[in-house]
Amino acid sequence: EVQLVESGGGLAQPGGSLRLSCAASGFTVSSNYMSWVRQAPGKGLEWVSVIYTGGTTYYADSVKGRFTISRDNSKNTLYLQMNSLRFEDTAVYYCARDEIDYSNYVYPHYYYYMDVWGKGTTVTVSS
Amino acid sequence: DIQLTQSPSFLSASIGDRVTITCRASQGINSYLAWYQQIPGKAPKLLIYAASTLQSGVPSRFSGSGSGTEFTLTISSLQPEDFAVYYCQQVKSYISTFGQGTRLEIK
Prior knowledge:
A: 127 residues, 11 strands, B: 107 residues, mainly beta, four-stranded antiparallel β-sheet
């Protein structure tokens, strides 16, 4: 069964750090694009970051320079290292598998869509 | 960044109704648009990708159309399980964005 399970959320102080993990099963993380999406309490979805199969990464302006997406192929796990946390980073963080459409290239990536989602992990930034 | 604006933001409808949600992009995104459904407290679920392709397992009462800057999600006959929040998402740019969401509630 294809599954994603996030962990690592919790309470952090402003300026602090957390590392989120997303363990995948039923497929290979390195063979797909993988994304992080977050949802602040009572708000809509916000795209956070993506990592391509080749390792290229992109970030939303709101987290650029503070968050780092990575993966460990041996553990088949995706990560999000979050530093310099702010109150506005409080949210449920979802990881998602990005299914790639190799027939459809739009620079700098192939078309993709988020077909498998984890249940999310909650991050609260509070003093 | 490419902005996506959904309308309406809130929709009240009855079981069996046909409803349409619109998503407008601030610049052309070809057909690089997906639609997701989110039931409160749950993870989003993919409904439609490439603007009009139904994801496997999604009921055929859901359909999508459009290209360029204007897209629609249509539910042909509302069922009780369809009352949720719906989001569009673009990946034309390397910075992906979501619409603000449309909350669909029972009248």
